[in-house]
Amino acid sequence: MSELIVPSRKQPLADGNVLTITPESAGWTYVGFSVYKLEAGQTLKKATGDKEVCLVLLTGRGHVRTEKASFENIGQRMSVFEKIPPYSVYVPSQDSYEIEAVTTLEVAVCEAPGQGSLEARLIAPEQVGVEIRGSGNMERQIHNILPEQEPADSLLVVEVFTPNGHWSSYPPHKHDRDALPEESYLEETYYFRVEPEQGFALQRVYTDDLSLNEVLAVKNEEAVLVPKGYHPVSAPPGYEVYYLNVMAGPTRTWKFHNDPNHAWLMKPPSAR
């Protein structure tokens, strides 16, 4: 298996953890990501330390409490493929959170360096920007959970639904140079779900000089590390693909560079 793929555990740990990515395990600086599956009545409590956190309730309902705030019985979708925006909770650094599952609950914990400058807050579904991006078989649905227009210290969080037979993160783009205003350096994780779950997604991660050039067959509940390079995704016919992206870097802005070999795809069909 490629070192860029991080599989989920078949059985959760005692605290419900099924997947963990740390800056140390990924070999980078900014992004941490983990997934927990909690049974009804089970709780998870953690301190944020020097990290800010975005808790994304992937499926199920629960209570989320921080040192100063409480959000009771939040969550509505039982499958990510309902394609409705999730409930999320932003928790600043130097705080803590407790999650109590009301139903079986799957929660993603997105982490990046924090400055403790913000208050904990609920990100309700109606606050999530929904857009259709691309056209034809490049069309996909975007949920902007924590975009750069919304307050945070480092984190950018978005989820994407790629219909069967379609491509996303496409045309291929990258954000691996700290060269603003043209391009920002952002580490990125992809957490995948596939429907039906026996399917797979394909993701290519490659650099201009092809010193990194991998094509990954990614299964349901696996994550992919994108330390650098272009990183397009394909959903095979018959399989819907969902992924949750977490990005962070030295500057909280998403400025990407398209692969010049494929930038022509950004033109209207009549101009190609």
Largest beta-sheet characterization: 7 strands, antiparallel
Amino-to-carboxy terminus distance: 38 Å
Helix content: under 10%
* Strand ordering within the main sheet: 1-22-19-24-14-13-12
Provide the low-confidence segments as ranges.
none
Roughly what is the average pLDDT, rounded to an integer?
A: 96
Gross morphology is globular
> Using only CA atoms, what is the Rg?
18 Å
Query: Structural class, please?
Result: mainly beta
According to DSSP, the number of beta strands is 25
- Report the sheet-strand fraction: over 45%
Helix count, DSSP H or I runs of 4 or more residues: 1
Secondary-structure element sequence?
EEHEEEEEEEEEEEEEEEEEEEEEEE
